[in-house]
Structures are given as structure tokens and as C-alpha cells.
Amino acid sequence: MPRKVLITGISGQDGSYLSQLLLEKGYEVHGFVLRSELENPVRELWRLKDFIQDIHLYPASIESYPAMFTIIKDLQPDECYHLAARSFVSSTFDDDFLTFDTNVNGTLNILSILHQAAPACRFYFAGSSELFGRAPYAPQNETTSFNPRSVYGITKATGYYLTSNYRDTYGMFACSGILYNHESPRRGFEYVTRKISLGAARIRLGLADSLHLGNLDAVRDWGFAGDYVRAMWMILQNDRPVDYVIAFGETHSVREFCQAAFSRLGLDYRDYVVQDEKFYRPAEDVPLVGDASRARAELGWQPKVGFQEVVEMMVDADMDMLRSENRIQT
Q: CATH code at 212?
């Protein structure tokens, strides 16, 4: 019998790459999606289109305890990857309340259901470098203290502690991966990396003449999503539940991302990128860059795709997408 896996947030960047990885490994893949996603699959489930016929999707919100309980009890998954979360930067108090409700209560719901209905299931919680926020030093590792600076970061810290609490109190195989920024052609259009790759492609094809961004000197530790979901799987194959930092371990600025993206298309980003104060976010005093030496030593995890390759992959994919949509020949 194939092992069964349940993925929340299966329609997102990480969920889609994880689904592919687990299908290749012979898993039976199941996932929660919103009913609105099932009603408009071309728009909402585009990341899954190449293998959607091979996975099982259920309309269930992670805020709905009863809906998830029935599905999980019947399914009895061997592994559960909890990737679903509201991850946008909040701009209103309403956003903050929704983010807290979804991310905290959703995580508590799933942990409680697994404890009661499928206690042997191994559980992965998707942590984030936002846990560290205003970090005391760089690079950060598993011993670095948390100091989140946003409601999103606070909810991820809460999810991390809920996961460790269920592990310690109930003996569940429950662990967290503290993942730093990871990108791909499946990145959402609201993220700065996708704005850059798509913006450069639009300019190259004559569909735009400028790209407005915030602070070009902001830095991040960027990796490839496909490498990071492989780390998620390795964390749950461990012989004991352990939390790990997963990161490439290098920082690059938004400016460097722009330079790499535009150079891929034979353009100079300085001719097209406009810094706009309305997109500025406060910069970290200490850069968020991860030390994944524990995962490398204990799991044997190594990233395979570097910064330049990720950028070029994203730009090439956006060029192909725009050519197809606009029937442009170059």
C-alpha cells in the first residue's frame, strides 16, 4: 500500500512542488483547497495542472474543525505537511485579525485533529525566517531567539510553539522547518521576486516601460523552492522529530536580483527600475540569513540550485508565459 500524505496549502508554490516530489516517491497525495479554488481551477489551481489528475483534493478550510476532522479520520494519513497560511504583509487591522485567526487557529485545529483521529501521523509545520524578525546576530540557526516584527511572524512563532507542545505533551512526531525565502516560477505575483522577473519580461517584450520597487538595498537569503520541499520531506523521514533551519546561507539584495533578471534579457535594470517609497518596508538591522549546517549534517540535505539559476529560471518562465498569452514572437 502506498503511503498517504495530506498537504494543506497544496495549491501554493511549496504545495505544488511537494506534491510532485511525493508522487515521484510513490505516495498517495491528498490536499485541502478552498471551495472557490475548485470552482475556478484554471485560475486558482494552475500550479497543479500538470498532475492534478494524480492527486485527491478536498474542499475544506483549515479554520473549519468539523470538515477537517471527518476527512482526516477517514483518510488516516501517514504524513501531514501544514503549509497553508496567510502570508501577505498586513496593511489593516482586519488583515491582522484574519492572519492570526487563520494561521494560529488553523494550526491548532490540525494538531488537535491529528492527536485525536490519526495520532501516528507525522506532522510538519511550515515555519519561517520571519520568526527571527529583529535577529540578534547573523547567521541565525536553531538556537537563535525569536523576535518577530509582524503579525505574520508572531503567528508563525505561535505555530512553532504549538507544534513543539504537541510533540512534548502527547508524544506526536511533530516538527517544524524554519525555511528562509525560496523562489521559483510558481511564486505568487504579489512577491517582490516575481514582480521583478515578470516586470523584466514585460519590459523586454514591450508590454511595459518601467518597474516600481521599494528599497533595492534590502537583502534576503534566497533559495529554490524545489530544494526546500525536499528538505521538508527529509525532516519527516528522520528517526526522531527535530526542528531545522533550512536556508541557502547567502544574502543577495533586491538590486542584485534586478541586475540578474534584467541581464538575462540583455537589459540594464538601471534604465527601467524606479524606487518608490510607497513600497518601502523597514530594513533589518541584522540581515536574515540562515545557517542550515544542522540539516546538512544530520539529514544530508544540500541545496542544488543557486541564486543566479533561480533568477534565470523565473525570468525564462515569465517570458514563455507572456509570449503564450500575447502570441508574441521574438
A: 3.90.25.10
298 is a domain residue: no
Q: Residue 68 contacts by C-beta under 8 Å, 6 or more apart in sequence?
A: 32, 60, 62, 109, 110, 113
Nearest 10 degrees: Cα torsion 118, 124, 126, 129: 140
Q: How far apart are CA 198 and CA 308, in angstroms?
A: 16
Annotated active-site positions, please? 128, 130, 152
CB proximity list for 212: less than 8 A, separation 6 or greater: 273, 274, 275, 276, 279
**What CATH number does residue 169 fall under?**
3.40.50.720
| Partners of 57 in the β-ladder | 31
Phi, psi of 2 (to 5 degrees): -70, 150
Q: In this structure, is residue 230 part of a structural domain?
A: no
Query: Is the pTM here over 0.85, yes or no?
Result: yes
User: Do residues 162 and 203 share a domain?
Assistant: no
**What is the structure's pLDDT at 276?**
87
Count of structural domains within the chain: 2
**What pLDDT shows up at residue 282?**
67
pLDDT tens-digit map of 208-226 = 999 999 999 999 999 999 9
Helix axis angle, 307-326 to 254-264, nearest 10°: 50
Which CA distances in Å does 186 have to 158, 217, 255, 295, 302?
Answer: 27, 24, 21, 25, 21
- Would you tell me the crossing angle of helices 151-170 and 106-117 to the nearest 10 degrees? 20
Question: Residue 319's domain spans which residues?
Answer: 188-221+250-288+305-326
Rounded to 5°, angle at Cα 170 from 167 and 173: 40
Q: Which three cell numbers stand for residue 188?
A: 505568487
Position 30: which residue type?
H
Using CA atoms, how far apart are residues 256 and 217, in angstroms rounded to an integer? 9
